Structures are given as structure tokens and as C-alpha cells.
Amino acid sequence: MKRNFLLASLLAATAAVAGQYDEPWSIITVDTLKSTDPNLRKVIVNRVDDFTVTDNRAVVGPGPHKVVLDLPPRRGFHQATQYELPLETKPCTRYYVAARLDSPALQTWTPVVRSEERIGECEAKFKLARAR
Fold first, then answer.
1. Pick from 73, 82, 110, 127: CA 20 to 30 A from residue 30's CA?
2. Number of folded domains that form the chain
């Protein structure tokens, strides 16, 4: 009986050690680069798949995700606005998200993926070929 309990404990501990980097991953993060486009603004990554994001960066598995983005209040506006971006992520890819204003004078905007890049560490770990 003791042996079965120890074996079960060992299996549970092994499962608990398995983390988000044990399989190919994707990263959703904010785009911090300045843009020459006056209608492109920095956003806050609020939630991904109903899990709160605390540092504007979410590590997720490949596949479909619901990304909730906030555009902080800016000059002339006193309330943040929020939109949901459906995003199909690919393995070993980092996505930089931003907001595209419909007009600087309006509160309306559209969430966009400004750019994406391959994650070399992930590709090397899982020996994934780069798509050209």
C-alpha cells in the first residue's frame, strides 16, 4: 500500500513539474516600438482565454485564442476601451499586438497584430523547420 502511495505521489510531482515550455509555444505581447503611423497606439494585454495577464505578455500553446486588449485613456478621453482579438497562433511565433485608431479624434479602434517573429529558442528545442 505504501509503495502505491509513493508511486502515485511521484507521478503527481512529475506532472506538476511539466510546464508551458515543454511543448512548442507562442507568445502574445505588446508592441513597444514607436510608429510613424499616428493612428497606431500601444495597448495593454488584459486577458488571454479568460486568464488575466499581469505583465503584458502571455505564453500560450499554438491554436485559437481570445485576446482581450485595452487602449488606455489618452488626451481628450477619460475612459479606457476594450476589444477582443481572435488570434490563431502558430508554434514558436511571437505576436506583437497594437491598436489602430479609426481617427485620432474618435474613441473607436481596431486591435491588430502589428508584426510577428519566429522564436529561435523554441524552434531549436523542438527542431521545427523555419517557414520561408
1. 127
2. 1
Cβ atoms of 72 and 44 within 8 Å: the answer is yes
Domain that holds residue 85: 22-126
Q: What is the pTM of this model?
A: 0.80
Q: Per-residue pLDDT tens for 77-125?
A: 777 789 999 999 999 999 999 999 998 888 889 999 999 999 999 999 9
Closest CA to 92 of 19, 18, 21, 31: 21
- Does the residue 36 lie in any domain? yes
Q: Is residue 5 included in any domain, yes or no?
A: no
Three-state SS sequence of 96-131: EEEEEECCCCCCCEEEEEEEEEECHHHHHHHCCCCC
